[in-house]
Amino acid sequence: MAAVCDNAIVVIHSIGPFNIPWNVHPNITAIVYAGAPGEKTGLSLVDVISGQYNPRGRLPFSIANDEKDSGTSIVYLSLGFPTLVYSEKLSLDYCYMDANDITPRFEFGFGLSYTSFEYSDLSITMSCDPSSAASVAFTIKNTGNFDGTEIPQLYLTYPANAGEPKKMLRDFDEVDIPKGQSKRVMLNLSLRGLSIWDTASQKWARPSGIFTVLVGASSKDIRLSGSL
């Protein structure tokens, strides 16, 4: 289609990652990842593409430039009872890409809107609640011309001695903000979210050291940071 149409919109229906090397074609002006929306596919796409509905979806995986960039591969075995060894452990998708300085085509947590958002005023407060370790608060302002919904994401970087990925998603929210207005948002870090599994003691334990708190619109679009 892109070969004969200079304003092609590509709609992708998929339940997992995929390769899109053709996205750089000059005639492809938009790509919509629609997942598997069911019988209302056509009507919902018309609403989004025409601007009647402001999208808020975010990618639950990264779209890599090359299949090997994801840190694991698809195993095609149709017979018998294969043994799969999860040798990648936590090092896959954005965790693998961060560790190897790989820039994806579209990163984990990425999504577009017809408006824009600005983040500010980060504060991190230790919690008195025994089920929560800390509260992370910040302000989001809708700086565009349309009402919209932002999906702020909270990532955590563990102390270097913990041996964890560079950052891990720990919380997120869905925040409706009218144009020109601001909202104060609070996300939480749980005690489990700060802990790693200690094989020696066979229990969850919080590693010693400084944690870095990252808040942003995707795994690559970090807007605010602080320490804990």
Automatic annotation (TrEMBL):
GO BP: cellulose catabolic process
SUPFAM superfamilies tied to this protein: Beta-D-glucan exohydrolase, C-terminal domain (SSF52279)
All copies of domain Fibronectin type III-like, residue ranges: 150-219
Pathway: Glycan metabolism; cellulose degradation
Reaction(s) catalysed (UniProt annotation): Hydrolysis of terminal, non-reducing beta-D-glucosyl residues with release of beta-D-glucose
A Pfam family it matches: Fn3-like
EC class name: hydrolase
InterPro entries: Cellulose_deg_GH3 (IPR050288), Fn3-like (IPR026891), Glyco_hydro_3_C (IPR002772), Glyco_hydro_3_C_sf (IPR036881), Ig-like_fold (IPR013783)
EC number(s) stated in the UniProt entry for this protein: 3.2.1.21
Alphabetical UniProt keywords: Carbohydrate metabolism, Cellulose degradation, Glycosidase, Hydrolase, Polysaccharide degradation
Example of a GO MF term: beta-glucosidase activity
PANTHER family: BETA-GLUCOSIDASE, BETA-GLUCOSIDASE F-RELATED
Family recorded in the similarity comment: Belongs to the glycosyl hydrolase 3 family.
Protein name, per record: beta-glucosidase
